[in-house]
Amino acid sequence: MSKIPLYVIADCSGSMAEPGKSGMLSYLLSYVAECMRLGQMPSWCAGVHALSWAATVQPLPLGLLLTTGLAAPRPAGRADLDVLMDVLERELVGAGGAVRLLLMSDGGIDHACQKRWQTWRARFALDIRAVALGADASRLALEALAGKGALYGAEEIGAALHDWASPQAAPRSLAETVAALVVDCAADDWQ
Length: 191
Known about the structure:
By secondary structure, the chain is an alpha/beta fold. The protein has helices spanning 19-37, 62-68, 81-94, 111-121, 139-146, 157-162, 174-187; strands at residues 4-11, 45-53, 57-59, 98-105, 125-132, 151-153. Strands 3-2-1-4-5-6 form a six-stranded mixed β-sheet, sandwiched between helices. It starts with a strand and ends with a helix.
């Protein structure tokens, strides 16, 4: 199995300023950092590159989240998708074009930007998962960015990260996994 870099993109735009969203983003970033610390990243992962994204894109030191308890950067400004595409394009060229993106966002991205993203991403071998943050997250916008079947709720961060271990398997939500288990258990003879 070839190794593929993982880019964790943390939306730090102004719409993420609600305490619930920023707290959840910090928790999700800590989850990824803890998986790294414990050596629990999927076997395909060549390394994790975390980026905060708003009007600019900045490296996000996940290791500091664990050692210092730092939260995600303070949310401010607009999420500029064009800036994110420019940064990612430079990274993609350096990585040979095959990367995986884990986008953590509330999806506050207008339709025109979504269309530009879809045109841009068609040029690369991108495998994207989006994690929706907040009760008001635009699930349609996030699915437009990540692709059909690649949208997860914040409570499904483990599945979003670790389901990639089996690239042939379609992503399953937590509800689908539980439903499959219930069907399997119903077939068992408990008497």
